[in-house]
Design a protein that fits this description.
SH3 type barrels; 4-stranded antiparallel beta sheet; 134 residues; 29% helix
């Protein structure tokens, strides 16, 4: 019988095992989702190519494509910013998310946060309206 704590533990162990394999092939493990019922569980995980510097190439390509729509440059990818006294690194841009398209990792603990375009443009000193509304 599967319950939530058991599924979380199994999922965590599977991701740890995959991380060792992924590291061997210079890939990053990105858990996408998990579903379960009393008799079975399903996990969705994506393996993505990372550069020699550890950057996720999928996120970097997405950033390079969509950042100009928000008045940002490809060089802004990976920049460190301070928001409300916390230091963050800009790591992704999801143009499908209209409200909070920017993703940043808090440097203190590695937790991911979503930010709206206005906040990121303000802390980077860029223009405050996108060229194209998606």
């Amino acid at each position: 019988m599967l319950d939530r704590p058991t599924v979380k533990q199994i999922n965590s162990e599977i991701n740890e095992a995959l991380a060792a394999i992924a590291q061997k092939y210079k890939l990053a493990v990105k858990p996408v989702g998990c579903s379960f019922n009393a008799a079975e569980m399903g996990i969705r995980t994506t393996l993505q190519v990372v550069s020699s510097t550890g950057e996720n190439l999928v996120d970097k390509k997405r950033w390079n494509t969509y950042a100009p729509l928000y008045g940002l440059t490809p060089e802004d990818f990976g920049r460190e910013v301070v928001i409300m006294g916390n230091r963050f690194r800009l790591v992704s841009l999801n143009a499908k998310c209209k409200k909070y398209p920017f993703v940043a990792v808090r440097l203190r603990d590695g937790k991911r946060y979503k930010f709206d375009a206005w906040t990121i443009q303000n802390v980077l000193g860029k223009k405050t309206t996108p060229e194209i509304v998606l």
